């Protein structure tokens, strides 16, 4: 099996932040989009907390149309790295308000399409599922300013900009676990490209679109190989779709660059782990059929086991049933089921996840070095454009901004003048810092 991206690897990016070999997504995004190394946890500011303009903001100021799509919450660190400035990535309310262009934000609204999860930062604290610490109602405040959609059907019917799509309280589900109430990454990207292509039909400028599959990060944080592979396949499918759109745009006479990279690696995933597989005994093994047999991720299956525990002690039969229904592990033994029951008895969901992952990972023969990020260099992918050669070789993540700007050949895209426009903007003006979720 080959993904649609394998022939497109052109270079590597070194991902360290200003204060750590191992970056988080806030510093990682800031490096790529603003061209400066900053401290972990800070987004859109340099290491002395000064706001720095981003490629998206500069493109918008030069007349381009812009879009940001994520499978995470829209105010998460990577999307925020394009259209917000905060010394605290967890400050969901502060970031969400900037992304919408509210509160007299000095740059106004810089984003024309914003799609993902994260509804919790838009609703007042007193409402269920809110992650705010005040009574502001951002959905109400966006009325008349944004077209807002909440379902895949509403997304597919959307025909006007600016478009805000919020499809989950927090982040979207893994592709393999996705409910019908949420659109997939490919559907979001396809809709955005449809709207952006139409909106730039008569424009001298074009558009800047960012999309990310954050599930590759989240599933690897969980050391969840089924979730990880399902996210990779979704990314590959989306990349294929984007390449088809690039052809459409090129035929229209619009030179278009499709670039894909990561802000960091997560999990330290390795194949051929020495774990003794219950199925295969030799060391140089990798058994992807185990992944192919699963109908849900181990994260999803863990939540089912955890929920069942809350209703009373798990039985051996119950564990066998849930694991068979969702992961179809062959030769899953009573001993393995008992390890899960012991983990469940501690009441700790991560212990259940670890016990289940041990059964899955030993069969697939994959190993993980961490439940956090690593300092491994990440690939840069680029396809079918002569400008791809600019990305050949190994780069600091901060070099990518200049390389991307080089493609535009448009002096009006000036990140420095955006930084000047942000002078005096206080990126440490925390509104609440309520989000508990740091990845
Ligand atoms: Zn992460």
Shape: globular
- Low-pLDDT sequence parts: 432-439
Bound molecules: zinc ion
Helix count from the secondary structure assignment: 16
Strand order of the largest sheet: 4-5-3-2-6
Number of domains as seen in the coordinates: 2
Catalytic activity: a phosphate monoester + H2O = an alcohol + phosphate
GO molecular function, one term: alkaline phosphatase activity
Binding site for Mg(2+): 76, 78, 212
InterPro entries: Alkaline_phosphatase, Alkaline_phosphatase_AS, Alkaline_phosphatase_core_sf
Provide a descriptive summary of the structure in words:
The protein is an alpha/beta fold and 439 residues long. The chain has helices at residues 25-34, 55-61, 77-83, 92-100, 138-141, 152-157, 185-199, 215-221, 225-251, 288-293, 298-310, 316-327, 334-345, 349-364, 399-408, 415-421, and strands spanning 9-14, 65-73, 113-117, 147-149, 163-166, 207-212, 259-261, 265-266, 270-271, 366-367, 373-374, 378-382, 393-396. The chain folds into two domains: 8-267 and 373-421, Alkaline Phosphatase, subunit A (3-Layer(aba) Sandwich), CATH 3.40.720; 270-367, no CATH class. Helices cover 38% and strands 12% of the residues. A five-stranded parallel β-sheet has the order 4-5-3-2-6, sandwiched between helices. α11 packs antiparallel against α12 (316-327). The longest helix has 27 residues, at 225-251. Zinc ion binds at residues 25, 217, 221, 266, 373, 439.
């Amino acid at each position: 099996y080959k993904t649609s991206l394998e022939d497109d690897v052109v270079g590597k990016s070194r991902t360290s932040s200003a204060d750590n070999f191992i970056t988080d997504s806030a510093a990682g995004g800031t490096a790529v989009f603003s061209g400066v190394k900053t401290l972990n946890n800070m987004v859109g500011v340099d290491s002395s907390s000064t706001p720095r303009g981003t490629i998206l903001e500069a493109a918008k100021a030069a007349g381009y149309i812009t879009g940001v799509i994520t499978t995470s919450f829209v105010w998460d660190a990577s999307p925020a790295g394009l259209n917000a400035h905060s010394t605290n990535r967890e400050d969901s309310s502060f970031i969400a308000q900037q992304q919408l262009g509210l509160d007299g934000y000095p740059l106004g609204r810089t984003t024309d399409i914003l799609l993902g999860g994260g509804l919790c930062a838009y609703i007042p604290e007193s409402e269920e599922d809110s992650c705010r610490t005040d009574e502001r109602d951002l959905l109400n405040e966006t009325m008349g300013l944004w077209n807002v959609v909440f379902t895949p059907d509403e997304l597919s019917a959307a025909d006007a900009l600016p478009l805000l799509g919020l499809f989950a309280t927090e982040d979207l589900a893994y592709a393999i676990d996705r409910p019908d109430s949420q659109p997939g990454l490919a559907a979001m990207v396809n809709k955005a490209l449809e709207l952006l292509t139409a909106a730039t039909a008569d424009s001298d400028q074009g558009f800047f679109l960012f999309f990310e599959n954050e599930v590759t990060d989240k599933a690897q944080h969980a050391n969840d190989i089924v979730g990880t592979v399902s996210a990779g396949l979704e990314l590959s499918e989306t990349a294929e779709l984007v390449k088809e759109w690039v052809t459409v745009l090129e035929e229209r006479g619009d030179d278009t660059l499709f670039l894909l990279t990561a802000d960091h690696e997560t999990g330290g995933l390795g194949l051929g782990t020495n774990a003794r597989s219950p199925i295969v005994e030799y060391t140089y093994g990798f058994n992807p059929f185990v992944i192919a047999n699963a109908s849900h991720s181990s994260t999803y299956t863990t939540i089912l086991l955890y929920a069942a525990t809350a209703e009373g002690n798990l039985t051996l039969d119950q564990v066998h049933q849930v694991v068979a229904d969702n992961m179809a592990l062959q030769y899953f033994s009573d001993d393995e089921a008992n390890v899960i029951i012991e983990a469940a008895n501690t009441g700790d969901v991560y212990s259940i996840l670890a016990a289940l992952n041990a059964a899955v990972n030993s069969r697939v023969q994959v190993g993980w070095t961490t439940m956090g990020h690593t300092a491994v260099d990440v690939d840069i992918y680029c396809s079918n454009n002569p400008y791809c050669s600019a990305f050949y070789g190994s780069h600091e993540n901060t070099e990518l901004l200049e390389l991307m700007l080089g493609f535009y050949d448009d002096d009006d895209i000036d990140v420095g003048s955006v930084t000047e426009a942000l002078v005096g903007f206080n990126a440490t003006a925390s509104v609440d810092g309520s989000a508990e979720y740091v990845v």
